[in-house]
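Methods — Computational structure assignment.
A single polypeptide chain was analysed. Its primary sequence is given first, followed by the predicted tertiary structure written as structure tokens.
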Amino acid sequence: MAIYETEAIVLGATNWGEADKIVTLLTREKGKVRAVAYGSRRAKSPLSSLTQLFNVADLQLFASAHGLDIVRSYAHKFFLADLSYDYEAFGYGAFVAELICEFCEEKEAQPELYEKILLIVPSFKKRKPRIVALAAFYQILECTGYQLQYKKCVKCGNALDEGAAFSLSEGGALCHNCKGSIKDKFPYKLALQKLIATLLDFKWQDDVVLNLSAQALKEAEKLMIDYLRYIFNKDLKSLAFIQQLLASQPICALKK
């Protein structure tokens, strides 16, 4: 087995065997990597702290052509954000981590996505986690093969108006002339069009407040949840928690 070194963001970990864990990592050079951290569940193991969510570390791994890589050594660098004391932020952060795990193929480099996650995760400590997670979804989607067309008609390319519709099966927005025969369409109002455009264009470094339409926000969240169910044919594990939070939270502006 070849040995390689990489910086990685920890996206999750699951118990494996009696004292080990399988760690899911996002790396700049190799994309998503799943690796065994042998002995990491032992209190005195040098790998015991590796598995914490959004830990950024330098790792040395044995590469495997078939199956899991093996963590040989690791050095902690920093946490993108410590969300362990913020119940809401941790829930939405886990949702973003699960999104990446589902969207990314193993060992396919995605440097753009890696750089984006470095900016997104710290925002959970500065902004409303609900809005951070929603903006993260729409921006992460653009880095995958599942992106949708929001700004013009997916069938004819014409501009959209208030009579536009949206179809998951068609892959995006439909103008009033093209929507007629589509069965799974739903209204795609201007307020929702503007909100999604705002989320897609949002710069994570900017020190701004976004005042968002409550109705458009709910519609953008519904589109997100419906689309995830459509493409994966299942509910993500973190979605149940997210939906509980959505049911109990008032709509708020995005503030620091």
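Note: The longest strand covers residues 3-16.
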